[in-house]
């Protein structure tokens, strides 16, 4: 899975501008197991970059922010309550 994630990040880093994205604003986020896979991918990439004999296809320096999330359901519940308290209409579904 780490290899798959690394290939996905490689694609984003090298193609984002073609799709109208900003290559200087790449954010990496994962939730629960996805956060673990993203962290392992960044760590593996950093190890590759530190080893002069290994060729890296993308750089951890291309990732502006990494955010690993766990327990997102509580965050969402709190966010919905906050929106309701501020009279913001929201439809989920």
From TrEMBL:
<dbReference type="GO" id="GO:0016787">
    <property type="term" value="F:hydrolase activity"/>
</dbReference>
<keyword id="KW-0378">Hydrolase</keyword>
<protein>
    <recommendedName>
        <fullName>protein-S-isoprenylcysteine alpha-carbonyl methylesterase</fullName>
        <ecNumber>3.1.1.n2</ecNumber>
    </recommendedName>
</protein>
<comment type="similarity">
    <text>Belongs to the AB hydrolase superfamily. Isoprenylcysteine methylesterase family.</text>
</comment>
<dbReference type="GO" id="GO:0000139">
    <property type="term" value="C:Golgi membrane"/>
</dbReference>
<dbReference type="Pfam" id="PF20434">
    <property type="entry name" value="BD-FAE"/>
</dbReference>
<dbReference type="InterPro" id="IPR029058">
    <property type="entry name" value="AB_hydrolase_fold"/>
</dbReference>
<dbReference type="InterPro" id="IPR049492">
    <property type="entry name" value="BD-FAE-like_dom"/>
</dbReference>
<feature type="domain" description="BD-FAE-like">
    <location>
        <begin position="2"/>
        <end position="54"/>
    </location>
</feature>
<dbReference type="InterPro" id="IPR050300">
    <property type="entry name" value="GDXG_lipolytic_enzyme"/>
</dbReference>
């Amino acid at each position: 899975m780490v290899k798959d994630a690394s290939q996905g990040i490689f694609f984003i880093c090298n193609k984002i501008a073609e799709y109208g994205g900003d290559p200087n604003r790449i954010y990496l986020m994962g939730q629960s197991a996805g956060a673990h896979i993203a962290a392992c991918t960044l760590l593996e990439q950093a190890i590759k970059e530190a080893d002069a004999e290994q060729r890296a296809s993308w750089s951890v320096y291309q990732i502006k922010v990494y955010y690993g999330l766990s327990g997102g359901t509580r965050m969402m519940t709190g966010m919905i309550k906050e929106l309701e308290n501020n009279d913001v209409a929201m439809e989920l579904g």
